[in-house]
């Protein structure tokens, strides 16, 4: 079965918008793991508008009580990100080629171009026992090089899969994702996937059995609002008699 790592960035975004600890990310992580999710993902960015670097330390503390669960920290490997990751030592670190002011992640690594920068970073993370994942576009030809620079896994960037799901041309795109996953497996890499996955599209992606882990945050948060909204509005109305 594919593992689910729940990305709590949007919990961080909501919390940060009011300047106090509500919603509480550690509490939400605990609820998530108690429900059976395999892991928690955060993607701190330099402006810390979503998850903060402190969240990485707090979540690592919580995960000590869940020996079978994993913490995955995603982000661009700048100096600050790396120093936090090397100190926190999550189970997994997913390197993403984000610009500092990026709205959200929108492309994978160009490993051929960036390999000289990536090799020592990957080596340093692996020395600490951290599993290293490279965020990649679904291009089968680039998977072997990801292995060659030292990655343990790739994470397939699934925005294109999600935005075309069920539309014209989707089958060709889905095939490209499966071919890329197979190429990664053939190269000796594990395969994660993420970005814009949701309750409607995730099952088909994972059905072929090539994906070890999906990380899902944005849609999961919106779906939680959708599924809970009516109940909560009704609960308020019942208080205001
Ligand atoms: C790498 C990736 O796709 C995710 O980490 C995503 O960028 C995080 O979600 P937000 O952009 O919604 O914070
Ligand atoms: N790695 C992808 C991730 O953590 C969550 O992406 P999204 O579901 O918020 O688009």
TrEMBL record:
<feature type="active site" description="Proton acceptor">
    <location>
        <position position="43"/>
    </location>
</feature>
<feature type="binding site">
    <location>
        <position position="7"/>
    </location>
    <ligand>
        <name>3-amino-2-oxopropyl phosphate</name>
    </ligand>
</feature>
<dbReference type="GO" id="GO:0005829">
    <property type="term" value="C:cytosol"/>
</dbReference>
<dbReference type="GO" id="GO:0033856">
    <property type="term" value="F:pyridoxine 5'-phosphate synthase activity"/>
</dbReference>
<feature type="binding site">
    <location>
        <position position="196"/>
    </location>
    <ligand>
        <name>3-amino-2-oxopropyl phosphate</name>
    </ligand>
</feature>
<comment type="function">
    <text>Catalyzes the complicated ring closure reaction between the two acyclic compounds 1-deoxy-D-xylulose-5-phosphate (DXP) and 3-amino-2-oxopropyl phosphate (1-amino-acetone-3-phosphate or AAP) to form pyridoxine 5'-phosphate (PNP) and inorganic phosphate.</text>
</comment>
<keyword id="KW-0963">Cytoplasm</keyword>
<comment type="subunit">
    <text>Homooctamer; tetramer of dimers.</text>
</comment>
<feature type="active site" description="Proton donor">
    <location>
        <position position="195"/>
    </location>
</feature>
<feature type="binding site">
    <location>
        <position position="50"/>
    </location>
    <ligand>
        <name>1-deoxy-D-xylulose 5-phosphate</name>
    </ligand>
</feature>
<protein>
    <recommendedName>
        <fullName>Pyridoxine 5'-phosphate synthase</fullName>
        <ecNumber>2.6.99.2</ecNumber>
    </recommendedName>
</protein>
<feature type="site" description="Transition state stabilizer">
    <location>
        <position position="155"/>
    </location>
</feature>
<dbReference type="InterPro" id="IPR004569">
    <property type="entry name" value="PyrdxlP_synth_PdxJ"/>
</dbReference>
<keyword id="KW-0664">Pyridoxine biosynthesis</keyword>
<dbReference type="InterPro" id="IPR036130">
    <property type="entry name" value="Pyridoxine-5'_phos_synth"/>
</dbReference>
<feature type="binding site">
    <location>
        <begin position="217"/>
        <end position="218"/>
    </location>
    <ligand>
        <name>3-amino-2-oxopropyl phosphate</name>
    </ligand>
</feature>
<feature type="binding site">
    <location>
        <position position="104"/>
    </location>
    <ligand>
        <name>1-deoxy-D-xylulose 5-phosphate</name>
    </ligand>
</feature>
<dbReference type="GO" id="GO:0008615">
    <property type="term" value="P:pyridoxine biosynthetic process"/>
</dbReference>
<keyword id="KW-0808">Transferase</keyword>
<dbReference type="Pfam" id="PF03740">
    <property type="entry name" value="PdxJ"/>
</dbReference>
<feature type="binding site">
    <location>
        <position position="45"/>
    </location>
    <ligand>
        <name>1-deoxy-D-xylulose 5-phosphate</name>
    </ligand>
</feature>
<dbReference type="InterPro" id="IPR013785">
    <property type="entry name" value="Aldolase_TIM"/>
</dbReference>
<comment type="pathway">
    <text>Cofactor biosynthesis; pyridoxine 5'-phosphate biosynthesis; pyridoxine 5'-phosphate from D-erythrose 4-phosphate: step 5/5.</text>
</comment>
<feature type="active site" description="Proton acceptor">
    <location>
        <position position="74"/>
    </location>
</feature>
<comment type="similarity">
    <text>Belongs to the PNP synthase family.</text>
</comment>
<feature type="binding site">
    <location>
        <position position="18"/>
    </location>
    <ligand>
        <name>3-amino-2-oxopropyl phosphate</name>
    </ligand>
</feature>
């Amino acid at each position: 079965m594919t593992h689910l790592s729940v990305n709590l960035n949007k919990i961080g975004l909501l919390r940060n918008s009011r300047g106090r600890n509500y919603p509480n990310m550690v509490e939400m992580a605990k609820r998530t793991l108690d429900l059976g999710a395999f892991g928690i993902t955060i993607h701190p960015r330099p402006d810390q508008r979503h998850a903060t670097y402190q969240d990485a330390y707090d979540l690592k503390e919580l995960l000590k009580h869940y020996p079978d669960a994993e913490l995955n920290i995603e982000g661009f490997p700048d100096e600050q990100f790396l120093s936090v990751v090397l100190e926190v030592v999550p189970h997994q670190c997913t390197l993403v080629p984000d610009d500092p002011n990026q709205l959200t992640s929108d492309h994978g690594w160009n490993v051929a171009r960036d390999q000289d920068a990536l090799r020592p970073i990957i080596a340093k993370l692996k020395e600490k026992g951290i599993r290293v994942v490279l965020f990649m576009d679904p291009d089968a030809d680039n998977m072997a090089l990801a292995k060659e620079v030292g990655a343990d896994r790739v994470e397939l960037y699934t925005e294109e899969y999600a935005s075309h799901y069920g539309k014209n041309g989707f089958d060709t795109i889905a095939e490209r994702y499966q071919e890329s996953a197979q190429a990664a497996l053939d190269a000796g890499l594990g395969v994660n996937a993420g970005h814009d996955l949701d309750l409607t599209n995730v099952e088909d992606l994972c059905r072929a059995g090539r994906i070890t882990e999906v990380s899902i945050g944005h849609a999961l948060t919106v779906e939680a609002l959708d599924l809970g909204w009516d109940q909560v509005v009704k609960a308020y109305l019942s208080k205001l008699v």
